[in-house]
Specification:
By secondary structure, the protein is of the alpha+beta class. Helices cover about 30% and strands about 25% of the residues.
Length: about 50
């Protein structure tokens, strides 16, 4: 389960099956922000992944 994204002009993938809970206090640097289209795609796939 991977979704293609572009962050800071670089192509990459979000591995949805590798996402886990992370405490925001442990995050040091902010890298980039997903576009609204990428965010909606991720949400849609996560709903399918978690419900089915």
């Amino acid at each position: 389960m991977r979704v293609n994204v572009v962050l800071n002009g670089k192509k990459g993938q979000v591995a949805l099956d590798q996402i886990r809970c992370v405490d925001k206090k442990r995050l040091v640097d902010f890298l980039a922000e997903l576009s609204s289209k990428e965010e909606q795609t991720l949400k849609q796939i996560l709903k399918q992944y978690l419900i089915d």
